[in-house]
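Retro notes, structure queue

What went well: the backlog is down to a handful. What didn't: a couple of records were mislabeled last round, so from now on we paste the full input next to the output in the thread. Example, using Protein kinase domain-containing protein from Persicimonas caeni:
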Amino acid sequence: MEDPRTMENSPAVNMLGQYKLIRKLGEGGAGQVYLARHSILEQNYAVKVLRREFHDNEQFTERFFREARLAARLVHPNIVKVVTADRYEDAYYLVMDFIEGISLEEMVAHGALEAHRAVRYIIHVLDGLDYAHTQGMLHRDIKAENILVDGRDEPKIVDFGLVTDVEQRSRLTAPNAVVGTPYYMAPEQWRGETLDARADIFSAGVLLYYTLTGRFPYPGTSPVSVLHRLTSGTHEPLNSVSISGATPLTAPTLELELEKIVSKALQRERALRYDSAHQFARELNEWLDAADLSEPASSLAESTRPAPGTRDNSPLESADQLASAGKLDSANQLSRPATGHYHIAAEDKPMTNESPNLAVSPVEIAPNTYWVGKRPDDEIFYANPYLRHFPGSDGNDDFNLIIDPGSSKDFSVVQAKVSQTIGSIKNVSSIFINHQDPDVGSSVGLLLGRYTPKAYVLCTEDTWRLVHYYNIPRKRFVAMEKYPRGLKVPTGHKLVPVPSPFCHFVGAMMLYDPQNRVLFSGDLFGGLTDRDAKGLYADESDWTGMRAFHQIYMPTNQALRHAIANIRALDPPVEIIAPQHGRVIRGKYVQEFMDRLEQLPVGLDVINDRFASEDELQAWTTVLNRVLEVAKVGLGDQAEVLLADDPNLSGIITFTGQGIEVTSLGKTSVERAVRLLCDHLPHEMANSLKYEAIYASQELDLPTPVIELDEDGPGDKDEEPNKSADATFSIASAE
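Corresponding output:
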């Protein structure tokens, strides 16, 4: 194999196993990083290739694979995931997720960042470091080049190639080896001493200083001069340099507080620094709170903040009532919050029609149930946080639940809309999370850490195992699967958990509000939204995006059927479906979209179809046209009309002057068309059509379509199905 080091930045044909190297992304002391594409999965990855001079160094290659194994253990939203490591011929390489974005170094090259933005980035970096440290690992080379900011404005730590296991005393590197980047290195790192988490904290302090100022706290023209400045001088005070774009920092007190935080992180003696990355992040969060720099959009909430002297609702304070029953009392009731009061003025309530400006206004989709999400212009993929306000008997015992609060990127908008509705986001009592994805609940850590520290997080145990990395204490977690018949909130209202495993995570759980008949469905019923779609409510145009979303994210149709069976078992029946993506479903589309999803092949059902060749699609086109000719004997031109009007076939078949052309999902198209046409044909003719589909597929060496043959005649075809057989996993029968 040609040495990847000889490649130019332009696309190349070199292969590392199943990975085609496309172009060089960067390089470091240990190797070069390439954009690569997996030939089977057809997904892009970043591949780090070890320099050839290290190949014969057994100690180094052993360390390379060992640290790859350690890095692969790290699963955190602010750390780039290591996928695998391998050797191909004479090349050693590491495969990581590819992040489409730019580094902090590239951002700072255009000028120092605004204070609120810089501090927010570093808080996320510290969250990732704190997680790695709890896993017994250090980074040892935190710097602006190693922080990538993705398309959602979320920073991610890359290059854990210098990770060391702090729990294991034996080292494969020399005891006094100096590893790191001079401007960012802690004094003990320069001295080659054994490191702990506080070395990464020092580097994070340098990174914060650098993003705020565009300069290093200990500048120098060479490593020796940097070391001299570090050991003999002090860093330039933060308040003596310009912090661009942050108007509130004109206040000397705030500048001084930020200077204190940075200075503590940059202490020469590690004993004087923060004990943990979590502690460092907590102080930065407190500074943000004091500076009122959470996001510029927070001004939307200014007019609705509680008046001085009023008290926010303190959610779920009665811990003694929760302890004996897993945070629920004997009646499966969430304990009451302490008394508090706020008023929702009638004129402030959002309208219930399509007219509100979705950019700034919450939308009441059902009584006291609000959509509080963000809708950027010209985007097709949205997250949908919801707020359910349960009024108490006299206004003192209100209970407020946020459902799928979304990512920290959208938090300022959610915060403003929640504050418009219930006075302050601090009045939130509990948070429900459908599953673990960052776009569903990565803002939960921010909510608990800064605004609602006494709120409870409601989700499944499987979801909890992943979301607790957002710094959610276990004592604030309620496992919803323990209460299949539902639980009561302090106001007496009921909430019912509805299992939807593998939609699209094993621990996914929907939430049903039987009072308003609203189902908060998570990713199920979610979809991509047309750029030209108006308003919040779904119509026929949403089906194409919903179908595509489910075929990408859902594993099998069996998962969909299982979840929908649970929905159909709910009493009273669902009237509104509020998904985590796409638009809210109501009216006739509730039943219609349930019926369609029950029949929709997804994921593994269509995996072979998705990778069909042009020749295979042409063969399936031949099969479908032969089926259509048989159907026309009994249905005439209505056969084409049935296929043309079927939403499940829209986009995967087209009509030409010569008949029908299959453009994708050939086997799936034929199976769907056969089922649809047979529903309108007499029994014997339907069987003839089915046999034609099977024989035509075999003649063209295609896989046999999955088709049910009624060999014994219609029989009991029209009898009522045994609904009890489908209720095995229903809420009513589960305990």
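Agreed that this is the format going forward. Reviewer comment attached to the example: The longest helix spans residues 614-635.
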